[in-house]
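Lecture 7 notes: from sequence to structure.

We start with a single chain of 193 residues. Read the sequence below before looking at the structure.
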Amino acid sequence: MIIRKLFEFENAHIVRFCSSKRCKSSIHGHSYKVEVLLESKYLDNAGMVYDFGLLKTYIRQIIDSFDHAITLFNQDDQSYLHEMKKYSQRWITLPVNVSAENFCRVFFILIDTLLKQTKMVNGEQGVNLQSIIVHETRTGYAQAFKDDAYSDILPKISLNDIEFSPAIKAEWNDIDFYDKLKNSYIFTNPKEI
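Now the structure, written as tokens:
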């Protein structure tokens, strides 16, 4: 069985090296929609794959980190990166170019890591991230699965190569959240939300 939760965020970027002249040469933004699809063959104590309310905790925090931020490719021109960080409090740097496809892969790795490091307390079993869909526009989206996120033929994405600005971290429930995620900390789902 698969469940789906939709999240939204506003983000700016440049997609270097793409065919579209405007996209590769001008900062622009999108109203993104992100679909998180979870699967399991089992249901928890309430007859659910995973309580939708639980998706509003750390998973929403991950996606909300990208809201009203600029996302930067860490291999871009260093003076450009410096200026963007200088004039925007909310920024994220990624080890891959900032396309919808790579957003899918980044979100997959972040959320998959979180789920693997989460102790579930309401009878949830075998809950896996099935896929991530990122709608960049009303008519266009990308979808990634586990094989895409951890591909041997695509550029690697490591949690250590993703950086969140201090302003983003300051808004998290726990300022050390990302360090904990990178260091295999076990998160425990709340018994009640």
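The radius of gyration is 17 Å. Keep this in mind for problem set 3.
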